[in-house]
Design brief:
This protein is an alpha/beta fold. The protein has helices at about 40-50, 65-75, 90-100, 120-125, 140-150, and strands at about 5, 25-30, 55, 80-85, 110-115, 130-135. The two termini are about 30 Å apart.
């Protein structure tokens, strides 16, 4: 189950889904694996929401498959994953595999947390679109996501 971070949403459409302006970015913030530290992920979710994005937070201890399923269900543009556990390489490899398997490669992936620079190439090879360092300022996080979405022609 995902935990919604409250956002201003448009009126319901006839189909029962929530309408959103074409320029509203939707982000799923996720914690994959056994990493139980989610304070940073919640702060990032709030930063993105305050920047006008719609944000869904998955909660702790999700599998890559659960995250991809939630991302598809929530029709997000970006999955943002925060990892502090040191297991980022195999977890992002599995996340990328799940995205390919579900034909959801259009969903961009942003990695954040404690990720040594020597692991960046492995993450990019796994399908990660951007890596935000642990010490990144709020404006870098927001700009990174906006630039990714704009580069895909969504804005």
């Amino acid at each position: 189950m995902t935990e919604a971070i409250p956002t201003d949403q448009g009126p319901n459409t006839d189909s029962g889904s929530v309408a959103r302006p074409s320029d509203t970015i939707r982000v799923l913030v996720a914690k994959i694996g056994l990493d139980g530290h989610d304070r940073g992920a919640k702060i990032v979710a709030r930063i993105l929401r305050d920047a006008g994005m719609e944000v869904v937070y998955t909660g702790l201890y999700k599998s890559p498959g659960e995250v991809v399923g939630a991302a598809i269900q929530e029709d997000v543009d970006v999955i943002g994953v925060s990892l502090l556990s040191g297991s980022h390489v195999p977890l992002f490899r599995e996340l990328g595999r799940c995205l390919r398997e579900q034909k959801a490669e259009h969903i961009m992936v942003v990695a954040g947390g404690v990720i040594p620079e020597q692991d960046y190439a492995s993450l990019w090879d796994s399908g990660v679109d951007a890596i935000v360092p642990q010490e990144a300022r709020a404006d870098l996080i927001v700009t990174t996501i906006r630039n990714l979405v704009a580069a895909r022609g969504r804005l």
